[in-house]
Amino acid sequence: MSDRAEDDLEQALLQVQSLIESTVAIHRDRSVQEQRITVIEGGYHAVLRRARDLIRGATRSIDIVHARMSDAKDEPGRGEGAERQLIYGAADTVTVRLLSSPALVDEDFVREQLGKDRPVAIRIARVPPLQALMVDGTAALVVAESAVGRRASMIRAPELLHTLATLFENVWRDAVPAGERIVFGNRDRGALARQILAALWAGVTDEVAARDLAVSVRTYRRHVAEIMALLGANSRFQAGVRAAELGLLPPAAPPGDRPGPRP
């Protein structure tokens, strides 16, 4: 995603947070039945139970944003793959879309979808920390940071549901299908590929990059050609951009340590 798109996304999330806070304040004195936003108390397992009920009750569509890192301290007893298991509770006729940040992509789950008649559609994008489950356009479960800390909310307010749906569609349109995420093979080969991608992104010359990787220039250029082919890139610059979109680059170094073009 471009910087402009990320800025727009950040602003949209801030609007969602503001709407949640204001709507909670407006409806604070109403009964639970009348509330359009309900704060979910009881921690992680209460949220999980509510998500399970929503998924099982879905009749048309389920859209999921998975971009918030879990905190074992705040979410004790969290089981690995618990959220993934919830998706299997959806009816076969329901369309499921999963939008994930690069760091949280579950490669095993992506592979499980291959060959299925109705696979979960999975795309990758750089999304600010947010966990959201939207069902049939009528209800959403959102876990996000707020002025009072981490908050889980059940949302049925039409204006908020519309904002969330618009946000999801805008990001989904430009996101990268998870099936295009490159698997370079074993761990050593994957580490080498990422080092080469980082060198391409930084504009390092072949001679310098080959020396840093302790390979010949000829071998380095062969690796570059193979990586470009895997990425479907027509130029080295395009390969670097594509790698960034797919979350394949190593973590960014601090500004003072970040390499630049070398002679």
Notes on the protein architecture:
The protein is of the alpha+beta class and 263 residues long. Helices cover 45% and strands 16% of the residues. It has nine helices and eight strands. Strands 1-7-6-5-2-3-4-8 form an eight-stranded mixed β-sheet, sandwiched between helices. The longest helix has 24 residues, at 3-26.
Quick overview of this protein structure:
An 8-stranded mixed β-sheet has the order 1-7-6-5-2-3-4-8, with helices on both faces. The protein has helices at 3-26, 43-57, 82-87, 107-113, 158-174, 187-202, 206-213, 217-231, 236-245; strands spanning 37-39, 61-66, 95-100, 121-124, 131-135, 139-146, 149-155, 176-177. The protein is built from 9 helices and 8 strands.
Give the SSE layout.
Blueprint: H1 3-26, E1 37-39, H2 43-57, E2 61-66, H3 82-87, E3 95-100, H4 107-113, E4 121-124, E5 131-135, E6 139-146, E7 149-155, H5 158-174, E8 176-177, H6 187-202, H7 206-213, H8 217-231, H9 236-245
Parallel strand pairs: 2-3, 3-4
Antiparallel strand pairs: 1-7, 2-5, 4-8, 5-6, 6-7
